[in-house]
């Protein structure tokens, strides 16, 4: 097996012989001579370090006594008569890296970076597009609700709009119930509007009676519930109770989803948790809230046995 002795600690540095034998050195100033000597000595250090490539091609076994053995197998190069001596160091040896392979990998990494940048840009554009489409959808729903206010509830167009809005609404969102709107319009027709000529108070009382009687009817209620009662004090509304009121000219019928500070003067009724839609009980009673004419009905109606 090939062997070699450990070299001494003194390393030899290669310096061009023609530079040392140059006559110009005798005429060169000392500082310039030192600069050129440093350049020649540092020139080997400027070379790039060799890169390892692939699996080891050989192993170097070194012993403290200076013995060096190089093998192409990872197994120890010692026979049974000569066991592995202590403090024997094993160093893997690699082939020199192929410069062309290194450049290819660098180019491939650069291409991957460009692909990642392009993908990030596409993701940002798609996110912006989705956000814009959501905004447009919300605006379209708002326009449909405005159109629905001016339509007769039983017309085919109103029914289609209600179906579209109900399909796109979130589960906890407050929606306009067409059956309630239809009942309110029927009650409006039943009132003697000539009474308004003799005073608005009588006409308002007649309207309130007609509307309450319509809302009490179980045949038009979307779910079983108790009678509608006006909101009069904190603590009256319980979670799950049905509420109806008007907001900015729109009629809303929804359930109480959450009650904050129940039974106190700070009571707040949340009827849409996802959008955080709520009203303050004391303001609704005083008429200072934008939620007008709040009526409350129990979620379940106890039927009396016949």
TrEMBL record:
Task: Give the source's domain of life in one word.
Answer: Bacteria
The protein here is known as: Uncharacterized protein
Originating species: Pseudomonas putida
């Amino acid at each position: 097996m090939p062997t070699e002795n450990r070299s001494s600690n003194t390393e030899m540095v290669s310096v061009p012989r023609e530079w040392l034998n140059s006559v110009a050195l005798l005429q060169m100033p000392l500082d310039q001579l030192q600069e050129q000597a440093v350049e020649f000595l540092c020139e080997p250090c400027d070379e790039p370090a060799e890169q390892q490539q692939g699996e080891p091609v050989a192993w170097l076994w070194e012993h403290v006594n200076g013995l060096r053995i190089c093998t192409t197998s990872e197994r120890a190069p010692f026979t049974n008569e000569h066991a592995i001596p202590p403090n024997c160091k094993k160093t893997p040896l690699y082939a020199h890296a192929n410069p062309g392979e290194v450049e290819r990998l660098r180019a491939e990494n650069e291409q991957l970076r460009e692909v990642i940048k392009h993908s990030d840009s596409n993701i940002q554009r798609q996110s912006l597009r989705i956000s814009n489409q959501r905004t447009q959808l919300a605006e379209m729903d708002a326009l449909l609700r405005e159109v629905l206010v001016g339509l007769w509830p039983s017309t085919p167009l109103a029914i289609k709009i209600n179906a579209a809005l109900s399909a796109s609404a979130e589960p906890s969102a407050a929606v306009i119930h067409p059956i309630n709107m239809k009942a309110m319009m029927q009650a409006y027709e039943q009132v003697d509007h000539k009474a308004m000529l003799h005073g608005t108070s009588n006409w308002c009382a007649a309207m309130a009676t007609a509307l309450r009687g319509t809302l009490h009817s179980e045949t038009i209620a979307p779910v079983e519930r108790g009678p509608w009662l006006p909101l009069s004090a904190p603590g009256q509304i319980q979670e799950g109770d049905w509420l109806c009121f008007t907001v900015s000219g729109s009629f809303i019928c929804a359930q109480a989803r959450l009650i904050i500070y129940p039974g106190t003067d700070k009571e707040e009724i949340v009827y849409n948790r996802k959008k955080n839609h709520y009203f303050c009980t004391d303001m609704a009673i005083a008429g200072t809230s934008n939620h007008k004419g709040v009526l409350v009905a129990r979620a379940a109606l106890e039927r009396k046995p016949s």
